[in-house]
């Protein structure tokens, strides 16, 4: 569920009437009125301009293009329990996330050709191909720069969905018709939230990811160290512990292993 917090301050000025003595031949000058508060609004920008400013805010297209891989170690907080999480991305090749929870490993893997998963908590104990709708919703994760980076070259389109004094809302539609809504802060141009439709236990749910605690890496690329995921009736948080860029990674890690392997 998209949540944009809009604060509005309303000021009302009231003037009082003063009776003047009859001998005063001319009325006293009216008191000077204070100038009306200036309403500062976010500039009117086209969708492409907003996306370009966002990419500049996270380090710039040149910095993003130099990142060939990203390894992220973090902790996922699920129902009061911590789950160590590792996410490895090779740009344009694949993304693999492994979480350990209650003694079980949960794996989601996306590649440029398809996806697979392991989730004992959902009855999938052996590696299994990912359903097409789930894959199409998450395949953009194989790109370090995210869905907005080089979006047109990947067949996606964008539009300015809305704006207010605090944020711009950009809607992106992929060539597979998956839809994402990005809320970008009007001052910092950093990404605040991303909303999409995901699959949970075979049912479509609206997933909103909140981003915070941006930190600059050695390359100048900005990474959010705080993430919060809201599925509506279920929420979880992710705290990033470390980020390593351009580590040599064997693409074989993205291949789906055989059952029992």
Structural class: mainly beta
CATH fold label: outer membrane lipoprotein receptor (LolB), chain A
Distance between the termini: 39 Å
Q: What order do the strands of the largest sheet run in, or round the barrel if closed? A: 6-5-4-3-2-1-13-12-11-10-9-8-7
CATH level-1 class: Mainly Beta
Count of β-strands = 13
- Indicate the radius of gyration in whole angstroms: 25 Å
Question: What is the tally of helical segments?
Answer: 3
Structure description:
By secondary structure, this protein is mainly β. It has a single domain (47-254), classed as Clam (outer membrane lipoprotein receptor (LolB), chain A). It is built from three helices and 13 strands; from the N terminus they run ααββββββαβββββββ. A 13-stranded antiparallel sheet has the order 6-5-4-3-2-1-13-12-11-10-9-8-7, with helices on one face. A hairpin with a 5-residue loop joins β9 (179-185) and β10 (191-200).
Q: Helix and strand layout, with pairings?
A:
Layout: H1 47-57, H2 61-65, E1 69-78, E2 81-90, E3 94-101, E4 104-111, E5 115-119, E6 124-129, H3 132-138, E7 157-163, E8 167-173, E9 179-185, E10 191-200, E11 203-216, E12 222-230, E13 235-245
Antiparallel strand pairs: 1-2, 1-13, 2-3, 3-4, 4-5, 5-6, 7-8, 8-9, 9-10, 10-11, 11-12, 12-13
From the structure above, extract its key features.
261 residues, mainly beta, outer membrane lipoprotein receptor (LolB), chain A, 13-stranded antiparallel beta sheet, 43% strand, disordered N terminus
């Amino acid at each position: 569920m998209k949540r944009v917090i809009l604060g509005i301050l309303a000021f009302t000025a009231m003037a009082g009437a003063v009776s003047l003595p009859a001998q005063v031949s001319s009325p006293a000058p009216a008191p000077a009125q204070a100038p009306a508060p200036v309403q500062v609004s976010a500039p009117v920008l086209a969708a492409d301009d907003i996306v370009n400013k966002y990419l500049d805010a996270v380090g710039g297209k040149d910095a993003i293009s130099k990142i060939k891989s990203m390894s992220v170690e973090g902790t996922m907080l699920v129902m009061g329990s911590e789950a160590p999480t590792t996410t490895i991305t090779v740009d344009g090749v694949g993304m693999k996330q492994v979480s350990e929870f209650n003694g079980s490993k949960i794996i989601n893997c996306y590649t440029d050709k398809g996806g697979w998963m392991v989730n004992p908590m959902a009855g999938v104990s052996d590696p299994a191909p990912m359903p097409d709708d789930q894959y199409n919703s998450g395949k953009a994760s194989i790109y370090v720069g995210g869905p907005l980076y080089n979006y047109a070259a990947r067949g996606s389109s964008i539009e300015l969905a809305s704006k207010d004094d605090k944020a711009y809302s950009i809607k992106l539609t992929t060539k597979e018709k998956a839809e994402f809504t990005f809320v970008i802060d009007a001052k910092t141009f950093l990404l605040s939230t991303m909303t999409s439709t995901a699959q949970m236990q075979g049912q479509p749910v609206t997933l909103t990811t909140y981003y915070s605690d941006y930190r600059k890496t050695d390359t100048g690329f900005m990474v959010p160290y705080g993430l919060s995921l809201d599925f509506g009736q279920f929420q979880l948080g992710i705290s990033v512990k470390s980020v390593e860029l351009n580590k040599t990674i064997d693409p074989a890690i993205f291949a789906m292993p055989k059952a029992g392997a």
